[in-house]
Each structure stands twice: as structure tokens, then as C-alpha cells.
Amino acid sequence: KATALDMGRYNVTANCISPFAWTRMIGTIPTETETQKARVEKIKKLSPAHIAPVAVFLASDAARDVTGQVFGVRGKEIMLFSHERPIMRVHNSEGWTPESFAEIFPGTLQHHLVPHVTSGQYFNYDPLV
Q1: Alpha-carbon distance 64 to 30, whole Å?
Q2: How far apart are the first and last CA of the chain?
Q3: Burial grade of 86 (CB within 10 A; 0-12, 13-18, 19 or more)
Q4: Whole-number pLDDT of residue 32
């Protein structure tokens, strides 16, 4: 986003692709149960070839007004991700110490934490490949 803002004055676009694809990096996903094995077999069908059309589009004149965005590609699905925005804030006119933050955290910000889930937990359907 910062690059998109800084480089916009030069008509340079900057976007991000968050790929879902089988790579050596994710080749260590546990496959101890039959469910895990089946999930990994489906993930193996997610190819970098699914991502290439989005990359080419974003580099083309057709996307000259698209900048500062995050796209996800999961097989035949393309997603536009939301930007990080504040969802809750707290203020202390005295400033913060670790102790004062720890004291207010449970009754304020903790209620707004985003659940930490895997893509398999978030997407309740198989990849469209």
C-alpha cells in the first residue's frame, strides 16, 4: 500500500497477489489422518498456472487504475482482500505501560481479536480447480 501511495504520482501501480498453490514451502503440511491426506491432495492441484493470468492482468494497461490492492488466487477463484483498518481503539492520557495495557486489554481490545485460523478452516469448500 505504501508503494502504491508513493509511486502513484509517477503512474506506477503496486498490487499484491496472495497465492494459494502447492509449493515445496507448504509441502510439510501434516498428512497423518485420511482427512489431512485428502486435503493435501486437493491442495496439490493448486498450480502457479492459476496465478499467472492475474499477474499478467495487473501488469497490463487494463489494470492501470488498479493499485494498492491485495488479490488472492485459489485455483479458479480470484478474491479481493480487505485492507487493514482499525476496528477498536483505546486511549490513555498518561501514556501506556505494559502493566496498564495488560490491565485494560481483557475488557477492551481482546473482544475484537481476529480468530487465528488456517485456510482449511476458513474455506469450508474444496478449491475450484
Answers
A1: 41
A2: 30
A3: exposed
A4: 87
In the chain, which residue ranges form alpha helices assigned H by DSSP? Answer: 2-7, 34-43, 48-58, 98-104, 119-122
Amino acid (one-letter) located at 79 = M
Grid coordinates of 61: 494497461
Distance CA 45, CA 129 (A): 7
C-alpha span between 2 and 8 (Å, rounded): 10
And the C-alpha cell for 5? 501511495
65 HSE (CA, 13 A, CB side): 0
What's the pTM?
Answer: 0.76
Flag residues of the chain having pLDDT under 70. Answer: none
What length does the chain have? 129
CATH of 2-122, one of 3.40.50.1000, 1.20.120.530, 3.40.50.970, 3.40.50.720: 3.40.50.720
